[in-house]
Write a structure and sequence with these properties.
The protein is mostly helical.
Length: 404
């Protein structure tokens, strides 16, 4: 349990990425930075985050999670502290926040769920992933107002410094507690638990995983569903202004954060009860309906409904796909395997926002972006209906030859 609590607390610090909108606004208003310059550190951080998550997944399978989480927390706190001296130069800030903080988040985030899952029974994978990911998702609720208060009271430079010092004092000591269970450890089954009859559960290497058709189905499902969520998350305030004439729709950002975090926990728990694929199918259907309804939202209540469904659906992906990866391909190489699958999220982070930006600039509305997202979700629904669990026979077929 202490590993789970530590993982949640660390992710509450790692969620500083979600506070960037506050920094961006301040850099433009107080220092006269352009929107492009002010947004560059965030864009770099997202790309570096996705890349380092894959690297960390590979390294933690070889070295264990503690070293990676310590490195990640140190980079995040160090990157924030260095950023306090870099606001005079957009390029340096892109390197300090985008490079160091982004890398740190990737290194730490990749290790927390797999380490925690190994201490709990397999029937709790969805709940554990949901709680760990929920810490990251809920972070904006305290980090955004805290960052805004610190900037108003102490300035941008000191805000970076204070947040970096806080991360150093809180996350780094907790990182030392993140360890895998000892060899041979078997988590006790919950009372009344009855094992399901299934063919999966084998430990696949990433090369063996790539030889299964299920991996490519999961990759496309993750990419298209996350793309729809990120399109709304990145543009919800602009959508409300363009479509509904709402001049002040910042409350939708908070609503997305709440439902995003709640979706990670609730849908993770649901996946433990009804299965990961059934949970994803439910999420894809709800998201598809939301995309079809979004052109009709014009009021605060309408946009609140849309934000709630988008937040729940997107949050669910970040708890259900990790547990599904462990279900299909085992925990032994989970860090590497999920890192490879997570490349789909990196692609989705480009597809969704770019389509929305292009469509809104070209046509003055987001209608086509909703349609494209709905089509992607329809494909995800079809794949969820067709996919089957990985079998023992596939493990034998994909097995790498043993060197003599």
């Amino acid at each position: 349990m202490k590993i789970l609590i530590a993982g949640i607390a660390i992710n509450l610090c790692m969620g500083v990425l979600y506070a960037w909108s506050v920094f961006s606004k301040a850099l433009q208003a107080e220092l006269g930075w352009s929107a492009v310059d002010a947004g560059m550190p965030y864009s770099v951080a997202v790309m570096v985050f996705a890349s380092c998550l894959l690297v960390s997944g590979v390294l933690q399978d070889r070295m264990g999670p503690r070293a990676m989480v310590i490195l990640g927390c140190t980079l995040v706190s160090g990157g924030l502290i260095v950023s306090s001296f870099a606001i005079g130069n957009p390029l340096v800030l892109a390197l300090s926040f985008g490079g160091m903080v982004g890398a740190g988040i990737g290194f730490a985030y990749a290790c927390l769920s797999p380490a925690a899952m190994k201490w709990f029974h397999s029937s709790k994978k969805g709940l554990v992933c949901g709680l760990i990911a929920g810490g990251f998702g809920i972070a904006p609720l305290y980090l955004a107002p805290l960052t805004n208060f610190l900037i108003g009271s102490y300035g941008i430079e000191n805000t970076f410094l204070f947040l970096g010092a806080g991360a150093l004092l809180i996350s780094v000591p907790l990182a030392f507690t993140i360890v895998n269970p000892p060899a041979g450890y078997v988590a006790p089954a919950p009372a009344g638990y009855v094992a399901a009859n299934k063919d999966g559960g084998n430990d696949f290497s990433w090369r063996e995983m790539l030889k299964t058709k299920q991996f490519y189905m999961l990759w496309v499902m993750f990419c298209f569903s996350a793309s729809a969520g990120l399109m709304l998350i990145g543009n919800i305030v602009s959508i409300a202004a363009t479509q509904g004439g709402l001049a002040n729709a910042a409350f939708l950002v908070s609503a997305l954060a709440v439902f995003n975090s709640g979706g990670r926990v609730v849908m993770g728990m649901l996946s433990d009860k009804i299965g990961a694929i059934r949970t994803l199918l439910l999420v894809f259907v709800l998201q598809g309906i939301n995309m079809l309804l979004f052109p009709m939202y014009e009021t605060e209540m309408g946009f609140m409904l849309g934000a709630a469904l988008a937040g729940i659906g997107y949050g669910a992906l970040l708890s259900v796909f990790p547990s599904l990866t462990a279900d299909y391909y085992g925990l032994k190489n989970y860090g590497t395997n999920f890192g490879v699958l997570y490349t789909s999220w990196g692609v989705s982070g480009f597809i969704g926002p770019v389509i929305a930006g292009y469509v809104s600039a070209a046509y003055g509305s987001y209608a086509i972006a909703y349609t494209v997202s709905a089509v992607g979700l329809a494909i995800a629904i079809a794949l969820a209906l067709l996919i089957k669990p990985v079998t023992a026979e596939q493990k034998v077929t994909a097995a790498e030859p043993v060197e003599a």
